[in-house]
């Protein structure tokens, strides 16, 4: 039965990567040797693409954003899958957005310092909000525009960050949304309901490659917002030092640098590792569906057995 199911699966054609903590180090730089590894993946027939929680303006500040499309897919998914940026043209497409009037609702509820992302641009309601946002994400001040009345000028809003948000602000909002707390800055991040990397990537591939599912994808990540994606793809790989929730939802947990693991990696090895995970009893987490919120719940430490690479010559 397992063999028959494996034969019906499509070839693995895509490698989806988180940025911070996966491809990038703590200073936002591409980890050593990974540029070469991405080029090797592309040459092998496994197209590397980015699925990140970063805002468009934040992504554009990275050196990685200027990698050629022969190494990294031209279109990148940002905002945890809510936004698609075409690097070659700068075009931004929203896959999900918040209901119209949500900024006005927040202001009326007492939110004075907020930053909204719309059309790939960042608009702050105050200088203080702009300063806090750029400090939080280590960005230059010029990437955020200050408009004391942002509600009048915004189009499709894909994310809002509220600083010094009251504890009950999420409850006061009469809109459907997802929220996360950013502790050190007392900030509340608000995104469209159901935003997650898995659903965003599935929608993107359905639009661009005619593939509505994630059976053709190997995904790599390290944080709780990667967990849903890793659980939903053909092969989910939690990188070295990954968050416990992410590790629990992955099929493979690395104890070596990502560049070492990717050496010689390609479509065939991805398929073999996926089958090996099934053989070890680490099949895809059917209880973690895109946007279920299961990736946000606390989880115990990973119960994966020690990882053994089935590729010839690997330890």
From TrEMBL:
GO terms for cellular component: cytosol. Residues 276-315 are annotated as: Disordered. InterPro entries: HAD-like_sf, HAD_sf. GO terms for molecular function: magnesium ion binding; phosphatase activity. This is Hydrolase. It comes from Streptomyces fuscichromogenes.
């Amino acid at each position: 039965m397992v063999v028959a199911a494996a034969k019906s699966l499509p070839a693995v054609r895509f490698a989806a990567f988180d940025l911070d903590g996966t491809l990038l180090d703590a200073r936002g730089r591409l980890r050593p040797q990974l540029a070469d590894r991405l080029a090797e993946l592309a040459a092998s027939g496994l197209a590397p693409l980015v699925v990140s929680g970063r805002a468009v303006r934040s992504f554009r500040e990275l050196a990685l954003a200027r990698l050629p499309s022969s190494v990294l897919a031209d279109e990148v998914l940002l905002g945890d899958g809510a936004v698609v940026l075409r690097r070659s043209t700068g075009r931004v497409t929203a896959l999900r957005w918040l209901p119209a009037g949500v900024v006005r609702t927040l202001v009326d509820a007492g939110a004075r310092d907020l930053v909204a992302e719309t059309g790939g641009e960042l608009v702050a309601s105050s200088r203080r909000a702009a300063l806090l946002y750029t400090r939080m994400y280590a960005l230059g001040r010029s990437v955020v525009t200050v408009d004391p009345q942002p509600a009048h000028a915004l189009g499709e809003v894909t994310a809002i960050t509220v600083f010094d948000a009251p504890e009950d602000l999420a409850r006061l909002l009469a809109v459907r949304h997802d929220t996360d707390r950013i502790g050190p800055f007392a900030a509340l991040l608000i995104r469209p309901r159901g935003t997650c990397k898995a659903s965003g990537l599935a929608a993107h591939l359905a639009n661009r490659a005619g593939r509505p599912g994630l059976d053709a994808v190997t995904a790599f990540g390290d944080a709780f917002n990667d967990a849903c994606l890793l659980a939903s793809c053909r092969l989910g790989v939690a990188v070295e030092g990954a968050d416990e929730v992410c590790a629990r939802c992955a099929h493979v947990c690395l104890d070596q640098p990502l560049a070492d693991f990717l050496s010689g990696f390609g479509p065939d090895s991805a398929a073999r590792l996926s089958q090996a995970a099934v053989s070890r009893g680490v099949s895809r987490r059917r209880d973690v569906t895109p946007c279920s919120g299961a990736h946000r719940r606390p989880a115990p430490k990973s119960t994966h057995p020690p990882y053994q690479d089935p590729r010839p010559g690997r330890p």
